[in-house]
């Protein structure tokens, strides 16, 4: 048993739970990555069917040319979500999604004037994606199988 695990167990109110937490640590992280990527891909699936369909909307946010940014938005959500779920190119995929979500935070909070109430889901999504930008994937990923990651 490592010193870190022993120290962590000593700090727990119920030290017996330390083994459970240690055993589920990597699996819970994998589950979060799969769910985050899967839901992002599902959300982007309607956009990938019509990748230029959001051109007018993105131009309304100040992103020109709209067709280019609409295509990028569609790919970031759909393919980025799939890649994130698989743990393939995890950090770049999460970063692309993070940029999209930070724009939606701005859109809801500032442009629409909804404040926190309008942006809270986007803030939560941004935090999840930021986690994977920094952390990358774990051993249950394509990145780990390849043996290389960003």
From TrEMBL:
Which InterPro entries does UniProt cross-reference here? DoxX, DoxX-like_oxidoreductase
Membrane spanning stretches: 67-86, 93-110, 122-138
According to its UniProt record, which protein family does this protein belong to? Belongs to the DoxX family.
Provide one Gene Ontology cellular component: plasma membrane
Question: Which source organism?
Answer: Aquamicrobium defluvii
Instruction: Please give the superkingdom of this protein's source.
Output: Bacteria
Q: Which UniProt keywords apply?
A: Cell membrane, Membrane, Transmembrane, Transmembrane helix
Q: Does the keyword Endoplasmic reticulum apply?
A: no
Topology class, membrane: Multi-pass membrane protein
Its protein name is DoxX family protein
An example of a Pfam family matching this protein is DoxX
Q: What is its main location?
A: membrane
